[in-house]
Amino acid sequence: MGEKTIARKPPHCLVLSYPFQGHINPMLQFSKLLVHEGVKVTLATTRFFIKNLHNNNNLPPSISLESISDGCDNGGIQEAGGSYNAYIQRFWQVGPQSLVDLLEKLAKLGNPVDCIIYNSFLSWALDVAKRFSIVGASYFTHNMAVNSIFYHVQLGKIKVPVIEDEVSLPSMPKLQLGDLPSFFLTYEEDGPVLEMLKGQFSNLDKADWVFCNAIYELDKEVVDWTTKIWPKYRTIGPNIPSKFLDKRVKEDEEYDVAQFKSEDYCIEWLADKPKGSVIYVSFGSMVPFDEEQLREIAYGLRNSDRYFLWVVRASEETKLPKDFVKKSEKGLIVTWCSQLQVLAHEAIACFVTHCGWNSVLEALSLGVPTIAIPKWADQSTNAKYIEDVWKVGIRVPIDEKRIVRREDLNNCIKEMMESEKGEEIKRNAIEWRTLMTKAASEGGSSHKNVIEFVNSLFSL
Ligand SMILES: O=c1ccn([C@@H]2O[C@H](COP(=O)(O)OP(=O)(O)O[C@H]3O[C@H](CO)[C@@H](O)[C@H](O)[C@H]3O)[C@@H](O)[C@H]2O)c(=O)[nH]1
């Protein structure tokens, strides 16, 4: 380490994030790891996203924030008529040139970029890196298994629509249609999203590095298989602040880039609750639930007669049943919280989650068992792994309208809190916590991979 920092000017990485909370969170944490190892980092995402961040200046002083255009600088997806598909098309037209402009601007300021670490969705960023003859590293915010599914779509080995009852892929359990990412069910309306996800692999052979926010131990077979295809494929997660892992990175204390404002009295509310008594419920930053689904979850929680802390984003609040109060003896509803702090609290018993990949990694890292209600994107595949592979949770059944009913949620809560199976799940969750921390610690599988990458940058 010491030799690197004295010998030369630090290498400069531009970390380019897709403009959503579930993407910028892990990429910021990865940036902090690189800074800790002596690399200079500029974090970039879209103008509109930055403009609307609740606290865009809460970055470590060593990381600067830059922006590119997605062609929707004043309204994001709304400016593209509220259509995610239209938004992607516009972004793909405007983004590459805007990235070129940013690289040229940084070079003119005497700050040339040596490496672009781009969110794998933005595959065109790799073409830009190659035009500038700089290192290109793809960063996957989804789990390996999910990446492998989209890779097989790209290869034409999974055809959409899927007509078979089950899909078999190398080194993975058999997947039923309901275990595949949601776009396989909604491919007619989500065609462009599916194209974007296939596109992650269209030029990946040119990538110098391929990173995945996961740990080797989570899925050794899939990682080994993937490394045969992309020899520089590396697991570098879990990308969460080290204060929740081995506390090695002192400078990563409270920094974050938040789209929503945390209601931090949650921790006060948790303070007098008995150990392992509170159900934490959150469905991430993006997915909307319809009114019927929120009503079922609301009554499922109330009928459980247990303490619960539920994050219902401001945009979702009006969908709650009218007789449902935000603060009762047993329950507290907030619009956003510091999820990691909540998960780390000893009062938390389990996490009812939509299985966004960050939430899954955070639960695994903190040893919190999960009750899975996957809804969209990669979440069903994550839920399959949670229940059947890592055995750290229970998936709530859905009815023919694809709705989770209150009785089923209630039964799963009971099973988690009262049964022998629940006890076993809790024990597994604690074991995973140990493995996640070990992987991120000095000498652990992810830490070694980060150091290998950093050393390669210093020897450019
Ligand atoms: O009150 C809250 C709720 C969430 N979070 C954080 O917000 C992030 C949410 O990320 P994630 O759990 O991955 O969910 P989404 O925001 O829904 O993420 C999108 O992006 C992920 C990464 O690609 C995908 O896995 C998801 O399916 C997709 O919906 C996590 O870091 C949470 O800790 C908070 O800090 N406070």
From TrEMBL:
GO molecular function list: quercetin 3-O-glucosyltransferase activity; quercetin 7-O-glucosyltransferase activity
Keywords for the protein's UniProt record, in alphabetical order: Glycosyltransferase, Transferase
SUPFAM superfamilies in the cross-refs: UDP-Glycosyltransferase/glycogen phosphorylase
Keyword Glycosyltransferase appears in the UniProt entry: yes
EC number(s) stated in the UniProt entry for this protein: 2.4.1.-
Keyword Glycosyltransferase in record: yes
InterPro entries found in the cross-reference section: UDP_glucos_trans, UDP_glycos_trans_CS
Entry-linked PROSITE patterns: UDPGT
Database matches in Gene3D superfamilies: Glycogen Phosphorylase B
Pfam families linked: UDPGT
Coiled-coil parts of chain: none
Highest taxon in the source lineage: Eukaryota
Family, per entry: Belongs to the UDP-glycosyltransferase family.
Protein's name in the database: Glycosyltransferase
Organism: Arachis hypogaea (Peanut)
